[in-house]
Design goal:
The complex is a heterodimer of chains A (313) and B (122). With 313 residues, chain A is mostly helical. In chain A, 68% of the residues lie in helices and 2% in strands. The chains are: A mainly alpha (313), B alpha+beta (122).
Chain lengths: 313, 122
């Protein structure tokens, strides 16, 4: 069969909302885009453990500590679901991990910001996980089957992340003057980076519709960002806090909130590796990987030993 | 087809050669941990269902890891693991021929038979 015919069959399936599965024929660019997107998503989950791991030993109560550990454990699980999905496209886990550790592969820039106070744990849950959820809910309907299934599983767990974050901020917002100030400060610092999570403006993106045509993605960056702003602008009122944007206001005509311009220079700087914690995050991942080498080897040695024993018996 | 995707999505950060995409797939990772498929019975009386895969040194470790990643919220009462290399899958390119014999046999369905209402539920 001609490649053009295969491409037509492929696109017809996508148009008919039939999921693409690992052994199906797919255009090389579809495979490549999915591999990159899914593995970067996986890396984001894994690196995402670091800013929060920073506070496990300093959580204010045993309850908050247990919640935080559970959340960080979830992120590790999400990374695994995603690596597994990416592996079905033909990349090995080791290659993907090696690309992360060498700095070749990217992960979400949001995790290159530092977690300075306890309130950051709440702000990350509410804003960062909130932004991620909008993206992930959309990806539950993505055209590549294994990615969509991983997303369904992740979304089920992710809702707890956002709710615990908001609840944690709610407690601070009703606390002492210092706690309130800490809450507002965390929101101030995480607001803009959270908006940046949706990526560049639609008008800045070239070739924008291939991912939409392949139904890898079903909403544009700006659509998702607007959805996030509308949602968050309402929720912040419940906290009795404000979002750090003087231009944020309801637009009755659009039935959406208007908001100010993102600092795109900062966005690209962090993407290019010059964010506050880029080096620290990669160093921490590399150290963890190196320190864990003996465990991986020991597990194989133990397996070999058991097999030897079994064969001898 | 050679189109470059230049739109930058969350989880899809730009860099022309970021991410690995070659097809040298091996089911054994460098440290030798093979890939396992995980099947979970969510409660007594139901079938085991495929939930995903993971790497582990041996079957015991695969079950323990599956417990940790796939049943953190009591999603299962029983786990099966099987090394991925032992699974033989049908070829999607041959799906047409493979399932064709069933296509024209509508008489295998109960709805094919028209019975008088007096018969009641059958």
């Amino acid at each position: 069969m001609q490649v053009q015919d295969l491409e037509k069959i492929f696109q017809d399936k996508i148009d008919a909302e039939i999921k693409i599965e690992p052994k199906d024929w797919m255009p090389e660019a579809y495979r490549k885009t999915n591999t990159r997107q899914i593995s970067q998503h996986a890396h984001s989950e894994v690196v995402g453990m670091l800013p929060e791991g920073n506070w496990i030993s300093r959580a204010p109560t045993l309850k908050r500590k247990a919640i935080l550990i559970a959340k960080v454990q979830d992120e590790a699980g999400h990374g695994l679901y995603l690596y597994s999905a990416a592996e079905t496209l033909g990349s090995s886990r080791d290659e993907m991990i090696a690309d992360l550790l060498s700095g070749k592969a990217k992960y979400s820039s949001i995790f290159n910001y530092p977690t300075l106070t306890w309130a950051d744990m709440g702000a990350i849950g509410w804003l960062v996980d909130g932004a991620a959820i909008l993206n992930q809910v959309m990806l539950c309907r993505t055209s590549y089957g294994p990615y969509a299934r991983a997303m369904v599983r992740i979304c089920k767990e992710e809702s707890f992340h956002q709710r615990q974050g908001f609840e944690s901020l709610l407690v601070l917002s009703k606390g002492t003057a210092e706690q309130k100030a800490m809450c507002q400060d965390a929101i101030n610092r995480w607001w803009w980076p959270s908006l940046m999570m949706f990526g560049p403006k639609d008008s800045e993106s070239t070739n924008s519709d291939q991912s939409m045509k392949w139904k890898i993605k079903r909403k544009t960056n700006d659509e998702l960002r607007q959805q996030f702003v509308d949602m968050t602008a309402m929720q912040v009122k419940v906290l009795g806090m404000t979002l750090p944007d003087p231009e944020l206001k309801w637009n009755e005509e659009r039935k959406h909130y208007d908001f100010g311009e993102i600092n795109w220079e900062e966005f690209w700087n962090v993407v290019k590796g010059n964010g506050p914690c880029n080096k620290q995050r990669l160093a921490a991942r590399n150290k963890a990987h190196d320190d864990g080498a003996w465990v991986r080897e020991a597990a194989m040695a133990y397996k070999a030993k058991k097999e030897k024993k079994r064969d001898a018996a | 087809m050679n189109c470059t995707i230049k739109k930058f999505y969350y989880g899809d950060i730009p860099e022309d050669n970021s991410g690995s995409s070659n097809q040298s797939a091996s089911n054994v990772s460098a440290n030798g941990w093979p890939l396992w498929e995980v099947f979970i019975r969510s409660k007594q009386g139901l079938d085991h269902k495929h939930v995903g895969s993971l790497h582990a040194a041996d079957a015991t470790m695969a079950i323990e890891n599956a417990r940790d990643v796939y049943t953190r919220r009591q999603e299962g009462v029983s786990i099966w693991v099987v090394e991925s290399k032992h699974i033989t899958a049908s070829n999607p390119d041959e799906a047409g021929e493979l399932y064709e014999p069933a296509v024209d046999k509508i008489y295998r369905h109960p709805t094919f038979y028209q019975l008088p209402d007096e018969v009641g539920h059958m």
